[in-house]
Amino acid sequence: MNIQKGKTEFLMGLDSVEQLKTWLNEHPFINGIAFIGRSNVGKSSLINSLFGKATARVSKTPGRTRQVNIFSFTVEDRETKLVESFYLFDVPGYGHAEVSKAMAQNWQNLLDTFFQLCSEKILLLNIQDARHPLQDSDVVFHEYIKGFDLETYLLFNKMDKLKTQSEKAKLQALKPAIYKEFKWVKQIHFTSAEKGDGLPAVEQAIITFVKRHSDLRGFS
Ligand SMILES: Nc1nc2c(ncn2[C@@H]2O[C@H](COP(=O)(O)OP(=O)(O)O)[C@@H](O)[C@H]2O)c(=O)[nH]1
Ligand SMILES: [Mg+2]
């Protein structure tokens, strides 16, 4: 089974809390995934690599995504040719030291709204920078998110920037502590949106998750 790259569609970007509330209330049981992480960790780049290029906008300046971007994507069973469609959310990052208080507050309100109202059948993909794992804002985010009871996978991106074996080993060594401290983190992946490392495993993990929550009979 595979994600049909190029069939991913941008549905809308919502930057108002009211609009987001309305949309989520109208879509209570939807099945899908959400990417979230500090700005500049490579969320948009990962989305493009996994869902087809130019799905999301890759930013030169950090903190450009100020809205919840909603997409639909499709998964195809190569044997049966059955196609099912799911939702993808690119959620604005957290921990922007450089933005104004008012803007930070609006992001926080969007995040609160998203996590309070989103379907339970949403998988959370928390992206972190492999070079700077578990930054303060990431730890604060984990504390925040644990109350919402969503299945969460952690992705350490930009692995291509870790040059030495010892840098890689240091990151691997964090795994047990993360599983212990953040018990709702079910999987940890090491990726490079640039080079493609780790992406086939992430794609299969996404498919396994959405399929597990699918209502379609015979879609296996
Ligand atoms: N070397 C490297 N650069 C990356 C990787 N992923 C993203 N980038 C770069 O990091 C910057 C921010 O990426 P973007 O996807 O916009 O991050 P976002 O703010 O989290 O959506 C861009 O310059 C990307 O080209 C990666 O895996 N490796
Ligand atoms: Mg982005």
SS field, number of helical segments = 7
Distance between the termini: 9 Å
Poorly predicted regions are none
Average of pLDDT: 90
How many strand elements? 8
CATH class: Alpha Beta
Shape: globular
CATH architecture: 3-Layer(aba) Sandwich
CATH homologous superfamily (4th level) name:
P-loop containing nucleotide triphosphate hydrolases
Element string (H = helix, E = strand): EEHEHEEHEHEHHEH
Taking the sheet with the most strands, its summary is: 8 strands, mixed
Please characterize this protein's 3D structure:
The protein is an alpha/beta fold and 220 residues long. It has one domain (2-212): P-loop containing nucleotide triphosphate hydrolases (Rossmann fold, 3-Layer(aba) Sandwich), CATH 3.40.50.300. The chain contains seven helices and eight strands, in the order ββαβαββαβαβααβα. The chain has helices spanning 17-26, 43-51, 101-117, 136-145, 165-172, 175-181, 199-212; strands spanning 2-3, 9-14, 32-37, 68-76, 83-90, 122-129, 152-157, 185-190. Strands 1, 2, 3, 4, 5, 6, 7 and 8 form an eight-stranded mixed beta sheet that branches. Helix 1 (17-26) packs parallel to helix 3 (101-117). The longest helix has 17 residues, at 101-117. The termini are close together. The model has no long low-confidence stretch (mean pLDDT 90). It binds guanosine-5'-diphosphate and magnesium ion. Guanosine-5'-diphosphate is lined by residues 37, 39-45, 58-59, 157-158, 160-161, 192-194. Residues 43-44, 59, 65 line the site of magnesium ion (MG).
How are the secondary structure elements laid out?
Elements: E1 2-3, E2 9-14, H1 17-26, E3 32-37, H2 43-51, E4 68-76, E5 83-90, H3 101-117, E6 122-129, H4 136-145, E7 152-157, H5 165-172, H6 175-181, E8 185-190, H7 199-212
Parallel strand pairs: 3-5, 3-6, 6-7, 7-8
Antiparallel strand pairs: 1-4, 2-4, 4-5
Helix pairs in contact: 1-3
The structure holds guanosine-5'-diphosphate (GDP) and magnesium ion (MG).
Magnesium ion binds next to helix 2.
